[in-house]
Amino acid sequence: MRLLPNGQFDTSFNNTGLFTIAPINHRHYLFSVSLSPNGNITCSGYLILSTGSNQARMFALRLLPNGNLDTSFAGVGYTYFNVTNQGNSLSRTHMLLSDGSLLMGGYSYSSNNNNVLDNFTIVKLNINGSFDNSFGNNGVVQTLLPNTGGEIKTLKLDPSNNIIASGFTYSVQTGNENFTIMKYNQAGNLDSQFVTSGIDRMSVVL
Prior knowledge:
Blueprint: E1 26-35, E2 41-49, E3 56-63, E4 78-81, E5 89-96, E6 102-108, E7 119-125, E8 140-143, E9 148-157, E10 163-171, E11 177-184, E12 199-202
Antiparallel strand pairs: 1-2, 2-3, 3-4, 5-6, 6-7, 7-8, 9-10, 10-11, 11-12
């Protein structure tokens, strides 16, 4: 949706001021929107396939300034995927990098962590919507903490272009939650010089 300063719909945007995408049997949920310097609009979140499987997929799309899909992104203007091909994969936030690539942060399932449903997950896509294979494992970083789940809520870069991911983690046994910050280098590896392990978990008692 794009509004004019007076609150009216901007009809120069997709002719109506609104953009909707609703492929058959898909439900979409957007959590993050950003503008690139050329005016393109990037959105991310997740979708649920209503038939065949109710599992969630990370979802990203890119629009041109006029509200049309940018077909130079993933061929059709949008992409969705499950990072482990099982369970859920959801994006809660994203950020655009200076080269036009896209970092998406959220959580995903892993059978390698005692079937913990929510694990810190970062995905990096190239400007054309393909996975950046130089980042993590074929474009995906999934941080598994024993018997611990968690979600990324925000992504930032420090002055050295290291990735700062913040959110929360929780104990599978007790349910106790902690504020959590993880620091990764540009290749997607945890920075061991940050609190020795690249991970800082803080509990707050009120």
